[in-house]
Design goal:
Mean pLDDT: 86
Strand content: 25-35%
EC number: 3.1.13.1
Number of strands: 34
Distance between the termini: 81 Å
Largest sheet: 6 strands, antiparallel
Shape: globular
Number of domains: 6
Main location: cytoplasm
Low-confidence stretches: 56-61, 721-730
Family: Belongs to the RNR ribonuclease family. RNase R subfamily.
Keywords: Cytoplasm, Exonuclease, Hydrolase, Nuclease, RNA-binding
Pfam family, one: CSD2
Length: 751
């Protein structure tokens, strides 16, 4: 470049290239050589003096950014009536950013001096730097109400949707929000809690038909008793929190740690970075850093925040909303590792050798600054040769080393042989109105697997450290299958012409051999489903029984303390073990570890059931417009009342009631998992390919009813109409004889 860059061009380069911000990098980028470097230094100094840049060691950066969720103070309106605010916790050394507040029609009136929690969006080309949307006013936490609105002469009432809740709410005439009679509404308490009469509420959201998709997750939350309303004292405690400083922490702000999450993630609790190990004793090895939000600094043992987090146990995730374990002030702000914002963390530095084995690790309590908030797809695209503007500058120093370290971990994983089930995850895509637009299967990118392997390694390091230091902790336990379930899996495999060896200590590699043998055959999905059903459910325990599925001797959850209480306990244990402060594991925590483990294992199952019920209802709503259509699928379950079919396109499970299979008697054999027709000999079993007709889809219950059209490509034979035919008892005997005959043939083949 023949001339010096303008200040705007320099600022744009630093913004686009956060890892190439030394004076040398900037000079190289603009072709500046010789004496012209003195002029570049002068321009950089001017930018620093003007507050556009701040110098840290030998690099220049944009001043600290505001996090997407921030505490703001309303400063008033301008001559045009626009409402402005200032950040309460600006840490940058440059000019304090200007924030325009964008109110919604349903927002309460805000005046000068009010403090709010707001969601920020950075803007360019305007006189203000951010636009803010109100989350809530600080110091207020109105009780939320979900129910059906009934119109009355005095305004209306809200009837609870839960059978066990008999309390109604009165809605004054001016607080109905335009709700219609019979609509599902979300409201908040208005006015003080009176001793006489019905409590008053103001409707804030109309959800429409109680059976509509947008109401599904809210109903599931209430039906399963998941707390979604934070007590006042919890909110007040969170609102008082201030960002952690550098005192007592290692300064990690110059490390190019990045977060990699789903594209719609709002909180970021883990960041990572990898580089070649410069230790000559570890030739070909890598150093992997995993930094996790230091939630324990804010949520201390015995506090109101701690009691509420333990009560919830975990965050619950639904297609249209999240019920967080911690209030927004923490989960979306102080504990979220936002790009360009200093954040407290507990980090682990792990050394792996050229074979991918961990050869050393150490934990630190630090202060970090994420170099970039990335999503899985853009990272994968960058690795595949299509980097966008954000990933391009990060390739050499950040993204490529992450994948190189991951390649070594894959070697170690292949030797360890954890259970390798192929179970695609469904993703329900909703419109803004809550209508299901599509149901897809999530892609499993190498970017997903990379983060997964890094987190597993960090969790192992946490467990090993605490075991070595004899510290109490909560292990993540996954025990091996019971002999009965293992035998059932072995029989399923044999009936499919496959082998699961007997008479040896079961290891995950034996199951992987079975899964590999089934891959690409007609029995692929059947063997995957049967293997999953043979597994026990993972749980938390202060006693270590190992993790069978991951093929690990000691495993603890450390990497998600924003959304799992178990991880918060492990963080406190690490703080105590390293004597980092007084916010570690208290004697009270240690005394009730057994009860805590049982409780959070139950809350985890509660969330899983609510999430599954919600997904089922959304799938039923999606399919309700396709009643009468035919779908392909596989039999995923057999019971004496019918068979379950998992449909290929959506992964939805539907039931073929036994009464629709014909009028003949069907014999159910629990041992072989089959239904057999007494007259036609029609035999239905796990894994068979079917074509089904959708006859019913109920969004209210999530139930899906099907009719069998063809089995393994053949039209289904129908038994005779029941009437003068053989008595049911005689047909049952005949069916039993046929089933026994089939079983004897199978046994002869096995020999």
């Amino acid at each position: 470049m023949s001339k010096l860059p303008t200040k705007d061009e320099i600022l744009q380069w630093i913004s686009d290239n956060p890892t190439l911000t030394s004076k040398r990098d900037i000079a190289k980028a603009f072709g500046i050589k010789g004496a012209a470097r003195i002029d570049l230094k002068r321009i950089l100094k001017e930018l620093e003096d003007e507050g556009h840049l701040q110098k840290r060691k030998k690099t220049y950066r944009d001043p600290d950014k505001l996090p997407p969720v921030s505490v703001l103070q309303i400063t008033g309106t301008d001559a045009d009536g626009d409402l402005y605010a200032r950040p309460m916790e600006w840490q940058g050394e440059g000019v304090e950013p200007i924030i325009l507040v964008i109110p919604r029609a349903s927002d309460p009136a805000l005046g000068e001096g009010d403090r709010i929690l707001g969601r920020l969006t950075e803007v360019k080309g305007e006189k203000h730097h951010y636009e803010a949307r109100l989350i809530r006013r600080i110091g207020t936490n109105p009780h939320k109400v979900l129910g059906v609105f009934k119109k009355t002469a005095e305004g209306g009432r809200i009837l609870p949707i839960d059978k066990g809740d008999g309390k109604e709410w009165q809605v004054p005439p001016g607080a109905t929000g335009g709700a219609k009679d019979g609509e599902l509404v979300e409201a908040e308490q208005s006015g003080p809690k009176g001793r006489m009469g019905l409590p008053k509420a103001r409707i804030v959201t109309r959800l429409g038909d109680p059976t509509a998709p947008k109401a599904v997750s809210l109903i599931a939350i209430h039906q399963h008793g998941i707390p979604d309303d934070f007590p006042d004292e919890v909110i007040a405690e969170a609102d008082k929190m201030k960002p952690a400083g550098l005192s007592g922490r290692e300064d990690m702000r110059d490390m190019p740690l990045v977060t990699i999450d789903p594209v719609d993630a709002r909180d970021h609790d883990d960041a990572c970075w990898a580089h070649e190990d410069d230790d000559p004793k570890n030739d070909g090895g890598y150093v992997i850093w995993v930094a996790i939000a230091d939630v324990a600094h804010y949520v201390t043992s015995g506090s109101a925040l701690d009691r509420e987090a333990r009560k919830r146990g975990n965050s619950s995730y639904f297609p249209d909303r999240v019920v967080p374990m911690l209030p927004d002030r923490l989960s979306g702000d102080l504990c979220s590792l936002h790009e360009g914002v200093p954040r407290a963390c507990i980090a682990v530095r792990m050394q792996i050798d050229a074979k991918g084995d961990k050869v050393g690790h150490r934990f630190v309590r630090g202060l970090m600054r994420s170099a970039a908030s990335l999503n899985y797809q853009e990272v994968q695209d960058a690795r595949d040769g299509k980097p966008n503007d954000k990933c391009g500058p990060l390739m050499e120093d950040v993204i490529d080393p992450l994948y190189e370290a991951y390649a070594l971990l894959v070697k170690a994983r292949n030797r360890r042989q954890p259970l390798d089930l192929d179970l695609p995850e469904r993703k329900v895509v909703l419109s803004d109105e809550g209508k299901v637009l599509s149901v897809n299967f999530r892609d499993r990118l190498d970017a997903h697997k990379l983060i997964e392997e890094f987190m597993i390694l960090a969790n192992v390091a946490a467990a090993e450290t605490l075991v070595t230091r004899r510290s109490p902790l909560l292990f993540r336990v996954h025990e091996e299958p019971s002999p009965e379930k293992l035998e059932a899996l072995r029989e399923t495999a044999q009936a499919s012409g496959l082998v699961l060896a007997k008479g040896q200590v079961l290891q995950t590699r034996h199951l992987n051999q079975l899964l590999a043998a089934a891959e690409g055959t007609d029995y692929d999905e059947l063997i995957n489903m049967s293997t999953l059903r043979a597994m026990t459910q993972a749980y938390y325990s202060p006693a270590n029984f190992g993790h069978f599925g991951l093929a690990l001797q000691a495993y603890a959850h450390f990497t998600s303390p924003i959304r799992r209480y178990s991880d918060l306990i492990v963080h406190r244990a690490l703080i105590s073990a390293h004597q980092w402060g007084k916010d570690g594991l208290s004697p009270g925590d240690a005394e009730i570890l057994e009860q805590t483990a049982t409780h959070i294992s139950e809350t985890e199952r509660r969330s899983m059931m609510a999430e599954r019920d919600t997904t089922d209802r959304y799938l039923a709503a999606f399919l309700s417009e396709r009643v009468g259509n035919e779908f392909s699928g596989r039999i995923s379950g057999v019971a004496k009342f019918g068979v379950f079919v998992r449909m290929d396109d959506t992964g939805a499970d539907g039931l073929i009631p036994i009464r629709t299979l014909g009028s003949e008697y069907f014999h159910f054999d629990a041992e072989s998992g089959t239904l057999m027709g007494a007259d036609t000999g029609l035999t239905l079993s796990l894994g068979q390919r079917v074509t089904v007709k959708l006859t019913e889809a109920s969004p209210v219950t999530g139930g899906i009813a099907l009719e069998l059209v063809s089995l393994e490509g053949e039209t289904v034979p129908r038994g005779p109409v029941r009437g003068r035919g053989k008595p049911a008892k005689r047909r049952a005997v005949k069916a039993k004889r046929k089933a026994d005959k089939v079983k004897r043939k199978v046994e002869r083949r096995r020999r």
